[in-house]
Design a protein that fits this description.
By secondary structure, this protein is mainly beta. The protein has 3 helices and 16 strands. It has one domain: monomeric porin ompg (Porin, Beta Barrel). It starts with a helix and ends in a 16-residue tail after the last strand.
Length: about 325
């Protein structure tokens, strides 16, 4: 095997071992017909506390640790003039280990395909400034959608009467069998805006949209900001901020999650067609959600005429 083929193969193997699947994150610039961008991401995520409905940090119910390992395949294809097709397929593994309060036991690990991604992006402007509208559908794939909770665990979660009205959903989720997603379908409509930062040799991207959820948890406003610069010709250093905010306030029964995440990204550009990625994401604040520290690695392949100041999908060419 040649060195050019061996390097991505080895790096992808490492990503499979590392395990956690972060968001692939769409950009403001779009691909032309026949162009493509494919990314494989893997990593590991660990949580030992959560944020309650008031945003206060609390240890997991019965202590212990929540671990997630996953691999994500994300592909974007230039399909028609101004229109791109997006497909994401994640595989995930979730393990819940209890502390001394829970007898030190470990619940059966849940593994399989998690929540998929099917989307379309329509290009409004694709020059130095990027502007696009994206419509995404998130369907649950192969996992068990319901969480199994024993009567004893239900009582520990506050549901002494058995009617579910007093159930603390955060505690119930931590005591129940692990699940690979929320178990419902989402549709998200978002606007992406991007601009080059010529003096810094980088770019800026913003995305904002509305996520309609067919079942609980409730609908959300979603947004993200990316800032990236090229300190060296082959090295891109970036920072990402993400938020998911409920349209209406949550409570213990409906458990509307709210998350604010931030993290750095390092991209080593092997050549115009391949990148190596090292990044992490951390929960800065949240309501009704686990605190997660995620580490992930990956490899990306592309064929595009976008330049190095036109987002993560761009190649190595200068504007």
């Amino acid at each position: 095997m040649s060195a050019r083929l061996a390097l991505p193969a080895v790096f992808f193997a490492l990503s499979l071992l590392a395990g956690a699947a972060p968001s692939a994150g769409a950009g403001a610039w779009s691909l032309a017909p026949g162009e493509y961008f494919t990314q494989f991401l893997g990593g590991w995520s660990s949580s030992d506390f959560y944020y309650d409905q008031d945003g206060k940090k609390r240890p997991l119910a019965n202590g212990g640790l929540w671990e997630e390992r996953s691999v994500l395949s994300y592909t974007e294809l230039g399909w028609k003039p101004r229109l791109s097709f997006i497909l994401g397929i994640p595989a995930k593994s979730v393990t819940r280990r209890f502390g001394a309060a829970g007898g030190g036991r470990t619940l059966p690990t849940a593994s399989g395909l998690a929540d998929g991604l099917v989307g379309f992006r329509y290009n409004l402007e694709n020059s130095a400034v990027g502007l696009a509208i994206e419509l995404d559908w998130k369907p649950p794939l192969s996992y068990e959608r319901s969480q199994l909770l024993t009567h004893q665990d239900s009582v520990r979660a506050g549901d002494a009467s058995g009617d579910g009205d007093s159930l603390d959903v955060n505690v119930a989720r931590q005591l129940a069998s692990p699940r690979l997603g929320d178990g419902q379908q989402d549709v998200t409509l978002a606007l992406h805006v991007g601009a080059p930062l010529s003096r810094l040799r980088g770019f800026f991207q913003f995305s904002g949209g509305y996520r309609y959820r067919f079942e609980n948890p409730g609908d959300q406003l979603v947004a993200s900001v990316d800032l990236a610069v090229w300190p060296m010709r082959s090295l891109l250093v970036g920072a990402r901020y993400e938020l998911e905010s409920p349209v209406r306030g949550g409570d213990r029964a409906t458990d509307h999650p709210e998350r604010y995440r931030v993290g750095p990204t390092l991209v080593y550009r092997v050549d115009d067609r391949m990148d190596l990625v090292l990044a992490s994401m951390h929960t800065a604040a949240a309501n009704n959600a686990l605190h997660a520290d995620e580490l992930y690695v990956g490899v990306a392949f592309r064929r595009t005429k976008l330049n190095r100041l036109q987002g993560f999908l761009g190649n190595s060419s200068n504007p």
